[in-house]
Amino acid sequence: MSQRTLVLLKPDTVRRGLVGEVLGRFEAKGLSIVALEFRTIDGETADQHYAEHVERDFYPPLRAFVTSGPLVALVLEGDEAIEVVRALNGATDGRKAAPGTIRGDLSLSNRENLVHGSDSPESADREIKIWFPDLP
Ligand code: CMP
């Protein structure tokens, strides 16, 4: 079933010059980019996006990180896109993520883990509305 998912290439991806490498993996897999924007977000947008994490101990440094510089937000579309993107991303902690995944190959951190992908159809709907409210 074709789905849409919200993906972030977080500020570490931009800082490290890995936008092309990471975007290329999604494109090579066969997913389509249906929206894409380069932007720097404020704390309120971070709080909206990470609403389920705002009370967690790890949230203040995560908030500082995601607002620390430009990121790339995009919507990818394709068959089972939500699970496919999560598989390509790998486990949250880059130190534990399997080789072959984006985080497993390119990240050594639990926070600066390069990418975000929606974790369910409900999250994808909610997150796409936050980042791309005008996307038909
Ligand atoms: P993401 O997929 O964007 O969803 C929540 C983010 O919080 C996660 O990627 C990491 O960047 C960050 N995160 C999750 N757990 C931890 C943790 N234990 N310590 C630091 N950052 C975390």
Automatic annotation (TrEMBL):
Reaction(s) the record says it catalyses: a 2'-deoxyribonucleoside 5'-diphosphate + ATP = a 2'-deoxyribonucleoside 5'-triphosphate + ADP; a ribonucleoside 5'-diphosphate + ATP = a ribonucleoside 5'-triphosphate + ADP
SUPFAM superfamilies assigned to the protein according to its UniProt record, in alphabetical order: Nucleoside diphosphate kinase, NDK (SSF54919)
CDD domains per record: NDPk_I
Requisite cofactors: Mg(2+)
UniProt: ATP binding residues: 10, 58, 86, 92, 103, 113
Subcellular location: Cytoplasm
Pfam families assigned: NDK
Enzyme class (EC, first level): transferase
Coiled-coil segments: none
Principal location: cytoplasm
Active site residues according to the UniProt entry: 116 (pros-phosphohistidine intermediate)
Keywords noted in UniProt: ATP-binding, Cytoplasm, Kinase, Magnesium, Metal-binding, Nucleotide metabolism, Nucleotide-binding, Phosphoprotein, Transferase
UniProt-listed SMART domains: NDK
Task of the protein: Major role in the synthesis of nucleoside triphosphates other than ATP. The ATP gamma phosphate is transferred to the NDP beta phosphate via a ping-pong mechanism, using a phosphorylated active-site intermediate.
Quaternary data: Homotetramer.
Family affiliation: Belongs to the NDK family.
PANTHER family, per database record: NUCLEOSIDE DIPHOSPHATE KINASE (PTHR11349)
Protein name: Nucleoside diphosphate kinase
Source species: Kribbella yunnanensis
